[in-house]
Amino acid sequence: MACHTRWACRVDACRVMKDRFPVVVRLLGEIGNEDNADRAVEAKGLLAQLDANFLMKLVVFSDILTKTSQLSNMLQSTDFDLAKAVELTETLISLLEDLRNNPVSFDILWGRIENTVEEQGFDIDMAVSTQRKMKRRLPEHFRDSVMLESVGNLGRSADGDSDTMGTDVKDQIRVNFLYPALDRIISEMNRRFNKKACNIMRSLPSFHPQSPILLEYETMEGFATAYNANREDLVHMHSVKRLLQRREKEGQEPPHSLLEFANSLKPFEEAFRELYRLAKIALVLPVTSAACERSFSTLTLIKTLVRNFMANSRLSILAVLSIESHRVEKSGLVRGQICERAQ
Protein backbone atom coordinates (compact mmCIF):
# COMPACT_ATOMS: atom_id res chain seq x y z
CA MET A 1 0.00 0.00 0.00
CA ALA A 2 1.37 3.42 -0.92
CA CYS A 3 2.23 5.79 1.90
CA HIS A 4 -0.07 8.83 1.93
CA THR A 5 2.48 11.12 3.58
CA ARG A 6 5.00 11.17 0.73
CA TRP A 7 5.21 14.29 -1.42
CA ALA A 8 4.53 12.30 -4.56
CA CYS A 9 1.05 11.52 -3.22
CA ARG A 10 0.16 15.21 -3.15
CA VAL A 11 -1.29 14.77 -6.63
CA ASP A 12 -4.66 13.96 -5.06
CA ALA A 13 -4.52 17.16 -3.02
CA CYS A 14 -3.75 19.19 -6.15
CA ARG A 15 -6.60 17.57 -8.06
CA VAL A 16 -9.10 18.17 -5.28
CA MET A 17 -7.98 21.76 -4.85
CA LYS A 18 -8.28 22.40 -8.58
CA ASP A 19 -11.70 20.76 -8.86
CA ARG A 20 -13.08 22.32 -5.65
CA PHE A 21 -11.49 25.74 -6.05
CA PRO A 22 -14.81 27.70 -6.10
CA VAL A 23 -16.00 25.89 -2.97
CA VAL A 24 -12.75 26.67 -1.13
CA VAL A 25 -12.95 30.35 -2.11
CA ARG A 26 -16.58 30.60 -0.99
CA LEU A 27 -15.85 28.84 2.30
CA LEU A 28 -12.89 31.12 3.09
CA GLY A 29 -15.06 34.11 2.30
CA GLU A 30 -17.70 32.95 4.77
CA ILE A 31 -15.07 32.28 7.46
CA GLY A 32 -13.61 35.74 6.83
CA ASN A 33 -16.96 37.30 7.80
CA GLU A 34 -17.23 35.43 11.09
CA ASP A 35 -16.95 37.08 14.49
CA ASN A 36 -13.93 34.98 15.42
CA ALA A 37 -11.10 37.43 14.69
CA ASP A 38 -8.29 34.86 14.48
CA ARG A 39 -10.15 32.61 12.06
CA ALA A 40 -11.31 35.59 10.00
CA VAL A 41 -7.80 37.04 9.65
CA GLU A 42 -6.33 33.66 8.68
CA ALA A 43 -9.11 33.01 6.16
CA LYS A 44 -8.68 36.44 4.55
CA GLY A 45 -4.94 35.90 4.33
CA LEU A 46 -5.42 32.57 2.56
CA LEU A 47 -8.09 34.04 0.30
CA ALA A 48 -5.74 36.81 -0.80
CA GLN A 49 -3.26 34.21 -2.04
CA LEU A 50 -5.81 32.25 -4.10
CA ASP A 51 -5.39 34.36 -7.22
CA ALA A 52 -4.86 33.55 -10.89
CA ASN A 53 -1.13 33.10 -10.35
CA PHE A 54 -1.79 30.43 -7.71
CA LEU A 55 -4.32 28.72 -9.96
CA MET A 56 -1.94 28.55 -12.92
CA LYS A 57 0.82 27.01 -10.81
CA LEU A 58 -1.71 24.58 -9.36
CA VAL A 59 -2.58 23.34 -12.86
CA VAL A 60 1.11 22.95 -13.70
CA PHE A 61 1.83 20.94 -10.56
CA SER A 62 -1.25 18.79 -11.10
CA ASP A 63 -0.01 17.90 -14.58
CA ILE A 64 3.55 17.13 -13.43
CA LEU A 65 2.52 15.12 -10.36
CA THR A 66 0.00 13.14 -12.41
CA LYS A 67 2.87 12.02 -14.66
CA THR A 68 5.09 11.06 -11.70
CA SER A 69 2.44 9.42 -9.51
CA GLN A 70 2.35 6.13 -11.45
CA LEU A 71 6.10 5.61 -11.06
CA SER A 72 5.96 6.61 -7.40
CA ASN A 73 3.18 4.15 -6.65
CA MET A 74 5.04 1.36 -8.45
CA LEU A 75 8.28 1.98 -6.53
CA GLN A 76 6.39 1.96 -3.21
CA SER A 77 4.64 -1.34 -3.86
CA THR A 78 6.06 -4.50 -2.32
CA ASP A 79 5.94 -6.68 -5.45
CA PHE A 80 6.86 -4.38 -8.32
CA ASP A 81 8.84 -5.51 -11.35
CA LEU A 82 12.23 -3.79 -11.42
CA ALA A 83 12.60 -4.11 -15.19
CA LYS A 84 9.20 -2.48 -15.74
CA ALA A 85 10.12 0.23 -13.22
CA VAL A 86 13.21 1.09 -15.28
CA GLU A 87 11.14 1.29 -18.46
CA LEU A 88 8.57 3.49 -16.74
CA THR A 89 11.34 5.74 -15.39
CA GLU A 90 12.84 6.22 -18.84
CA THR A 91 9.39 6.95 -20.26
CA LEU A 92 8.68 9.51 -17.53
CA ILE A 93 11.97 11.33 -18.11
CA SER A 94 11.20 11.42 -21.83
CA LEU A 95 7.74 12.91 -21.15
CA LEU A 96 9.14 15.59 -18.86
CA GLU A 97 11.88 16.50 -21.34
CA ASP A 98 9.27 16.71 -24.09
CA LEU A 99 7.14 19.04 -21.95
CA ARG A 100 10.18 21.26 -21.41
CA ASN A 101 11.63 21.31 -24.91
CA ASN A 102 8.63 20.79 -27.20
CA PRO A 103 6.55 23.98 -27.70
CA VAL A 104 3.56 21.91 -28.80
CA SER A 105 3.46 20.03 -25.47
CA PHE A 106 3.57 23.28 -23.54
CA ASP A 107 0.85 24.78 -25.74
CA ILE A 108 -1.43 21.88 -24.76
CA LEU A 109 -0.68 22.50 -21.08
CA TRP A 110 -1.18 26.24 -21.54
CA GLY A 111 -4.58 25.59 -23.08
CA ARG A 112 -5.65 23.76 -19.93
CA ILE A 113 -4.26 26.60 -17.81
CA GLU A 114 -6.25 29.23 -19.77
CA ASN A 115 -9.47 27.23 -19.55
CA THR A 116 -9.09 26.71 -15.79
CA VAL A 117 -8.26 30.35 -15.06
CA GLU A 118 -11.11 31.65 -17.24
CA GLU A 119 -13.60 29.24 -15.65
CA GLN A 120 -12.81 30.73 -12.25
CA GLY A 121 -13.37 34.28 -13.53
CA PHE A 122 -9.76 35.54 -13.41
CA ASP A 123 -8.02 37.75 -15.93
CA ILE A 124 -5.03 35.74 -17.11
CA ASP A 125 -3.19 38.86 -18.31
CA MET A 126 -3.07 40.08 -14.71
CA ALA A 127 -1.92 36.77 -13.32
CA VAL A 128 1.79 37.49 -12.92
CA SER A 129 2.77 40.47 -10.86
CA THR A 130 3.76 43.47 -12.94
CA GLN A 131 5.42 45.37 -10.11
CA ARG A 132 8.35 47.25 -11.57
CA LYS A 133 11.69 47.09 -9.84
CA MET A 134 13.42 50.23 -8.62
CA LYS A 135 15.87 51.75 -11.02
CA ARG A 136 19.50 51.39 -10.09
CA ARG A 137 21.26 54.66 -9.49
CA LEU A 138 24.39 55.22 -11.55
CA PRO A 139 27.53 55.79 -9.43
CA GLU A 140 28.89 59.36 -9.44
CA HIS A 141 32.21 58.42 -11.07
CA PHE A 142 30.27 56.91 -14.04
CA ARG A 143 28.05 59.96 -14.55
CA ASP A 144 30.00 61.20 -17.60
CA SER A 145 30.47 57.69 -19.03
CA VAL A 146 28.40 55.57 -21.36
CA MET A 147 27.47 52.17 -19.85
CA LEU A 148 26.97 49.49 -22.50
CA GLU A 149 26.64 46.48 -20.19
CA SER A 150 26.99 45.72 -16.47
CA VAL A 151 28.34 42.46 -15.07
CA GLY A 152 25.79 40.53 -13.02
CA ASN A 153 22.79 42.39 -14.43
CA LEU A 154 22.45 40.78 -17.84
CA GLY A 155 18.75 40.28 -17.18
CA ARG A 156 18.17 44.05 -17.02
CA SER A 157 17.52 46.46 -19.82
CA ALA A 158 19.27 49.79 -20.29
CA ASP A 159 16.86 51.68 -18.00
CA GLY A 160 17.38 49.17 -15.14
CA ASP A 161 14.10 47.26 -15.50
CA SER A 162 13.84 43.51 -15.78
CA ASP A 163 13.58 42.27 -19.36
CA THR A 164 10.89 39.76 -18.37
CA MET A 165 8.45 42.56 -17.66
CA GLY A 166 7.98 43.05 -21.37
CA THR A 167 7.09 39.41 -22.00
CA ASP A 168 3.58 37.99 -21.79
CA VAL A 169 2.18 35.83 -19.02
CA LYS A 170 2.68 32.62 -20.98
CA ASP A 171 6.42 33.17 -21.35
CA GLN A 172 6.80 34.20 -17.72
CA ILE A 173 5.11 31.02 -16.48
CA ARG A 174 7.17 28.86 -18.81
CA VAL A 175 10.55 30.48 -18.10
CA ASN A 176 10.24 31.48 -14.45
CA PHE A 177 8.19 28.58 -13.09
CA LEU A 178 7.88 25.54 -15.37
CA TYR A 179 11.50 25.35 -16.52
CA PRO A 180 13.05 25.48 -13.01
CA ALA A 181 10.60 22.86 -11.71
CA LEU A 182 11.18 20.47 -14.62
CA ASP A 183 14.95 20.98 -14.56
CA ARG A 184 15.07 20.08 -10.88
CA ILE A 185 12.90 16.98 -11.33
CA ILE A 186 14.73 15.72 -14.43
CA SER A 187 18.14 16.34 -12.85
CA GLU A 188 17.16 14.47 -9.68
CA MET A 189 15.73 11.54 -11.63
CA ASN A 190 18.83 11.28 -13.80
CA ARG A 191 20.94 11.27 -10.64
CA ARG A 192 18.93 8.57 -8.88
CA PHE A 193 18.24 6.46 -11.97
CA ASN A 194 21.60 6.69 -13.68
CA LYS A 195 22.86 4.13 -16.15
CA LYS A 196 24.59 1.99 -13.53
CA ALA A 197 21.56 1.92 -11.25
CA CYS A 198 19.23 1.03 -14.12
CA ASN A 199 21.48 -1.83 -15.22
CA ILE A 200 21.44 -3.22 -11.68
CA MET A 201 17.65 -2.92 -11.47
CA ARG A 202 17.26 -4.75 -14.79
CA SER A 203 19.53 -7.55 -13.56
CA LEU A 204 17.91 -8.21 -10.17
CA PRO A 205 14.94 -10.22 -11.54
CA SER A 206 17.40 -12.79 -12.88
CA PHE A 207 18.04 -13.89 -9.26
CA HIS A 208 14.40 -14.40 -8.34
CA PRO A 209 13.26 -18.04 -8.68
CA GLN A 210 9.76 -17.03 -9.81
CA SER A 211 11.07 -14.84 -12.63
CA PRO A 212 10.94 -16.13 -16.24
CA ILE A 213 14.48 -14.80 -16.77
CA LEU A 214 16.00 -16.71 -13.84
CA LEU A 215 19.79 -17.13 -14.22
CA GLU A 216 19.94 -15.67 -17.73
CA TYR A 217 23.49 -14.44 -18.22
CA GLU A 218 22.57 -11.66 -20.64
CA THR A 219 20.27 -10.10 -18.04
CA MET A 220 22.67 -10.69 -15.15
CA GLU A 221 25.69 -9.23 -16.98
CA GLY A 222 25.08 -5.63 -15.85
CA PHE A 223 24.86 -6.70 -12.19
CA ALA A 224 27.97 -8.86 -12.49
CA THR A 225 29.93 -6.02 -14.07
CA ALA A 226 28.89 -3.54 -11.38
CA TYR A 227 30.19 -5.80 -8.61
CA ASN A 228 33.32 -7.09 -10.40
CA ALA A 229 32.25 -10.71 -10.65
CA ASN A 230 34.34 -13.31 -12.41
CA ARG A 231 32.39 -13.92 -15.60
CA GLU A 232 34.04 -17.27 -16.25
CA ASP A 233 32.43 -18.66 -13.09
CA LEU A 234 29.01 -17.51 -14.27
CA VAL A 235 29.08 -19.33 -17.57
CA HIS A 236 27.94 -22.61 -16.00
CA MET A 237 24.72 -21.27 -14.49
CA HIS A 238 22.74 -23.82 -16.50
CA SER A 239 24.01 -26.37 -13.98
CA VAL A 240 22.17 -24.48 -11.23
CA LYS A 241 18.96 -24.63 -13.24
CA ARG A 242 19.30 -28.40 -13.65
CA LEU A 243 20.03 -28.71 -9.93
CA LEU A 244 16.84 -26.87 -9.03
CA GLN A 245 14.80 -28.94 -11.49
CA ARG A 246 16.24 -32.20 -10.13
CA ARG A 247 15.47 -31.23 -6.53
CA GLU A 248 11.90 -30.35 -7.53
CA LYS A 249 11.46 -33.77 -9.21
CA GLU A 250 12.68 -35.44 -6.03
CA GLY A 251 9.80 -33.86 -4.16
CA GLN A 252 11.69 -31.05 -2.47
CA GLU A 253 10.01 -27.66 -2.18
CA PRO A 254 11.41 -25.28 -4.81
CA PRO A 255 12.56 -21.80 -3.69
CA HIS A 256 9.87 -19.12 -3.92
CA SER A 257 11.85 -16.03 -2.90
CA LEU A 258 15.29 -14.57 -3.31
CA LEU A 259 16.17 -15.52 0.27
CA GLU A 260 15.18 -19.15 -0.30
CA PHE A 261 17.16 -19.16 -3.55
CA ALA A 262 20.29 -17.89 -1.76
CA ASN A 263 19.85 -20.49 0.99
CA SER A 264 19.53 -23.25 -1.61
CA LEU A 265 22.90 -22.21 -3.06
CA LYS A 266 24.71 -22.20 0.28
CA PRO A 267 25.50 -25.96 0.33
CA PHE A 268 27.07 -25.56 -3.13
CA GLU A 269 29.01 -22.39 -2.32
CA GLU A 270 32.35 -23.83 -3.43
CA ALA A 271 30.97 -24.84 -6.83
CA PHE A 272 29.06 -21.63 -7.50
CA ARG A 273 31.05 -19.10 -5.50
CA GLU A 274 30.43 -16.02 -7.69
CA LEU A 275 26.73 -16.74 -8.16
CA TYR A 276 26.27 -17.20 -4.42
CA ARG A 277 28.12 -13.93 -3.73
CA LEU A 278 25.95 -12.02 -6.21
CA ALA A 279 22.80 -13.57 -4.76
CA LYS A 280 23.77 -12.34 -1.27
CA ILE A 281 24.41 -8.85 -2.65
CA ALA A 282 21.06 -8.85 -4.42
CA LEU A 283 19.41 -10.01 -1.20
CA VAL A 284 20.62 -7.07 0.90
CA LEU A 285 20.64 -4.43 -1.82
CA PRO A 286 18.15 -1.67 -0.89
CA VAL A 287 16.21 -0.78 -4.01
CA THR A 288 14.00 1.95 -2.54
CA SER A 289 13.63 3.77 0.79
CA ALA A 290 9.85 3.38 0.79
CA ALA A 291 9.88 0.83 3.63
CA CYS A 292 12.01 3.06 5.88
CA GLU A 293 9.95 6.16 5.15
CA ARG A 294 6.77 4.18 5.70
CA SER A 295 8.07 3.33 9.19
CA PHE A 296 8.65 7.00 10.00
CA SER A 297 5.19 7.84 8.71
CA THR A 298 3.70 5.14 10.94
CA LEU A 299 5.33 6.67 14.01
CA THR A 300 3.86 10.10 13.25
CA LEU A 301 0.42 8.54 12.86
CA ILE A 302 0.64 6.64 16.16
CA LYS A 303 2.23 9.26 18.41
CA THR A 304 0.00 12.28 17.90
CA LEU A 305 -0.58 15.35 20.04
CA VAL A 306 -3.48 13.56 21.73
CA ARG A 307 -1.39 10.44 22.44
CA ASN A 308 1.81 12.26 23.30
CA PHE A 309 2.33 10.70 26.76
CA MET A 310 3.39 7.22 25.64
CA ALA A 311 6.36 5.17 26.81
CA ASN A 312 8.94 4.12 24.25
CA SER A 313 8.26 0.43 24.81
CA ARG A 314 4.56 0.77 24.02
CA LEU A 315 5.30 3.03 21.04
CA SER A 316 7.75 0.45 19.68
CA ILE A 317 5.21 -2.37 20.06
CA LEU A 318 2.43 -0.44 18.34
CA ALA A 319 4.77 0.60 15.52
CA VAL A 320 5.87 -3.00 14.87
CA LEU A 321 2.25 -4.17 14.88
CA SER A 322 1.31 -1.50 12.35
CA ILE A 323 4.33 -1.96 10.09
CA GLU A 324 4.21 -5.77 10.17
CA SER A 325 0.40 -5.98 10.07
CA HIS A 326 0.45 -8.74 7.43
CA ARG A 327 2.45 -10.99 9.78
CA VAL A 328 0.10 -10.22 12.65
CA GLU A 329 -2.86 -11.33 10.55
CA LYS A 330 -1.13 -14.58 9.61
CA SER A 331 -0.24 -15.33 13.25
CA GLY A 332 -3.91 -15.66 14.21
CA LEU A 333 -3.44 -13.59 17.37
CA VAL A 334 -5.24 -10.38 18.13
CA ARG A 335 -3.07 -7.34 18.76
CA GLY A 336 -4.05 -7.13 22.41
CA GLN A 337 -2.67 -10.61 23.09
CA ILE A 338 0.60 -9.73 21.36
CA CYS A 339 0.94 -6.56 23.46
CA GLU A 340 0.39 -8.54 26.66
CA ARG A 341 3.00 -11.14 25.68
CA ALA A 342 5.48 -8.42 24.69
CA GLN A 343 5.09 -6.75 28.07
What do you see in this structure?
- The chain is an all-alpha fold.
- It has 3 domains: 7-130 and 167-192, no CATH class; 197-284, no CATH class; 290-342.
- The chain has 16 helices and no strands.
- Helix 1 (11-19) runs antiparallel to helix 4, helix 4 (52-76) packs antiparallel against helix 5 and helix 11 (258-265) packs antiparallel against helix 12 (273-284).
- The longest helix is centred in the first third of the chain and has 25 residues, at 52-76.
- The protein starts with 10 loop residues before the first helix and ends with a helix.
Helices, strands, pairings?
Blueprint: H1 11-19, H2 21-32, H3 37-49, H4 52-76, H5 82-101, H6 103-119, H7 169-192, H8 195-203, H9 217-226, H10 238-249, H11 258-265, H12 273-284, H13 290-302, H14 312-323, H15 325-331, H16 335-342
Helix pairs in contact: 1-4, 2-3, 4-5, 4-6, 4-7, 5-6, 5-7, 5-8, 8-9, 11-12, 13-14
